[in-house]
Every structure is written in C-alpha cells, then in structure tokens.
Amino acid sequence: MLNRIRDIGHLLREAGQTAKALRQKGLQIQEKGPDDFVTNADRQLDALLGSQFQAWFPDDAIVTEENLDSLKAWPHAGRTWAIDPIDGTSEFLGGSPHYAVMVGVLDGPKPVAGWVYAPEADELVYGGLALGGLYCQRGNAPEIRLQPQQPAALTGKIVLSGKDRERYGAAIREVFPNTEYYSVGSFGLKVLEVLGGRADAYFYLNRRVKLWDTAGPFALARCAGALCCDFDGQPIAYDRLDRTTLAHQQHVWVGWPDTIGTYRRDLAQALATVPQFQNP
Hints:
This protein is of the alpha+beta class.
C-alpha cells in the first residue's frame, strides 16, 4: 500500500475531476430507492476505481458502492478497500461543491487508512495509522502534514444533516439552546469539519450510513485522536454491519474525547425522548 500512495492520490483526483466534468455536461439519473439516487458519473467512477484497485491489490477485498456483487467480499479477514465513487450524491446532483471521492482501508475490522478528495476545491486529505499521519494536498502543490485542530473551547457548532435536524434538532436545543447546526453534504467532508476544529462534533442518527461512507473518514479520525462512537460511548463496530447492505446499525458520533464528555450524557437522554431515535 505504501508504494501506491501517490498513485492512489492521482487516481482519486482523476476520478473527481471526471465527475466534475460529467456534471457540467449533464447527468443521467436513476433512483435506487427512496431518496437514494445514482448517476452515470457514480457508475463510471465506480468501475474505474474498482478495477484499478483490484489490479493494484489482487489479494485484497474490494468493496464498491455501485457494484452489488462486491458487497459479498465483506467481511474479510485481511485487507479491504471500501470505495465510494461520489459521496454526497444529493449535493452533487444539486450543483453544490460539497461532494467527495473516498477510499478507506480496513485491516480486518479496523479502519487504518483513508482518502477524501473534494473535486471542487481540488483538495485531497489522506492518512491514517497505517500511513503514519495525516496529509493534505491541494492541486499539484506539494503535500503537507495536516495537524488536527481540537478547539480550546466549545464552538457551539454541530455538523448535522438536514434530515437529522428535522427529526432531532428541537430535542438537542432543549439541552444545548445555543447550538448552531450546519451541514456540508459528504460524510467525509463532515468528519473533516471536526478534525479541522470548525465544529465540536458530527452526529449521524438515521442509521443508513454504510461501510464505504465511513471507512476512510474514520481512519482519518482515529489517526487524529478523535472518537467515532455511538451514544453509549461504544466504538463504531464493523462486525455489526447489516450483512446485506453493509449499513451501520449504530448511531454515529464523531468528536474529541473532551467534547464527547461534555455532550454525551445529556444529549443521549434528550434524544431518547424522540421515537425515531430508537426506531428510525
């Protein structure tokens, strides 16, 4: 893997800029399920990335969002590459810049490396425990080591999706009345808001997020020292995925240890009063 770091970065940039160009030309859109869409760009990038990673790493499991047959490769005792060709499809369809191309690596059940590439910003963030740190590269500029930014004091800002805000926003404000919510589309970009010190935490509460959404971002978060856990404080476990869809069965919290200690107990009690929290 280490000898392919630059190749992976170049491939993700190629894929992301291809997605950007295809969006400018006009997309072909299909509905996979309720509020779940796929475009010709998703499928084209999925095939490109899946085939190249399989060629590079023939002994590893390759799981990609749009190749349903590839889901059968999980769980895998060795190394698994989880690929999301376009993370933040709604934003991609809506003309927003907040989408990303993502790759994550799991060693057994543990995320150990990840890449998040934002095509509109032409910015790649990658790293993990297996890569010895976190790095950022913008365009063709030299990469720099990325230093996570844990706020010295709570910002009062929480990253929360629009759907979760509709369901749980009022309950959160009952215990934290000065909270400010915002969203940036892609799951990976939301996690980077926390690692960059711009938000106290990211909550994901509807239990639809899947292996390829979390593997890369969680690898970055783990390397930064942030926590990825549920509202009981239990780590997000990859041996508890739905075996058919590879969706996580836990609510997700990404934040710093001190922040989670401040929020978790009161917030968990408040959210427990909302029926959808237990039965989304």
